[in-house]
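Milestone M4 deliverable, item 7.
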Amino acid sequence: MKNTPPGYTVGIEGITEPTSFPALAPALSSLWQTLNTLPLGWTQYEAYRYFFGPGAVERTEAFLARDGALQLGFALLGRTRLIRVLPGGGGRPQLVPAPLKLVDSPEVTALRLEGLGGHGRRPGPEPERRWSA
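Output delivered:
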């Protein structure tokens, strides 16, 4: 990793364009924002919250130091997709945390038609409503 260009590149195979950031924190935040819009099940959501939620920078730095890259798989639209976090540039530049740019493909169009943008809501019990008199 010593000769790797500065920055980090993240992406979701077949769903987003590879995107490069100058620092790891905005890269992971953008990846997490994008994952929150996908129709992930509860188990997948919780697993990725571990990887990209609180404390993500330290965990990811440890993975990158040990393995050189972080690659995680998940099933979406009938096939396995890879989430990649790589040291170095090479993707579309982005400076601030924001959802990653989606690729223009029939699969992503199908996701959009089915309601991509799930607002991060996960299945679970409805909150108790209190009614005032």
